[in-house]
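Quick question, first post here. What does this chain look like in 3D?
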Amino acid sequence: QTVLQGIILLPLRAICIAFILLLAWLSASIATSCQPGRGILPLTGWRRRMIQTTLSGLTRTAYFVMGFQVKVKGKVASLSEAPIFVAAPHSSFFDAIICALTGMPSIVSRAENLSTPVFGTILSCLQPVAVSRQDPDSRKNTVAEITRRALSRGQWPQVI
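> Answer (accepted):
Ran it through. Tokens below.
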């Protein structure tokens, strides 16, 4: 019976996750289309709200479909309380849970990730701080960009 459930549930879950991923890509594409100051200026207004609500909800739904149920104890720190979040050890796909629960903050990511099909578009709408491993000044530039965003007095979203 367990094998039969797996034979039915695995394809069903895969189809649902693919559909959720397609919706996330579509939402990210809409939010970043015709964006003024692409990557230089923070997303504001309906674009930011769309990312926060739609992508956060889709991410939570995807993890639910995969069988994860996440409960939050306590209150998530606001932008004024904590302009920078630290999540460790950020080495797996579970980092997306943290992003969904904290309102889709900006993240620090490899620059190469932005060119990945589908995921790159979704990642771009989070306005990541891109780290280039080929650039010798990348570490210094990343620290400067994180500091600039943290001191922006709420113009940029929180950085994780």
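The mean pLDDT is 85.
The chain has one domain: 1-151.
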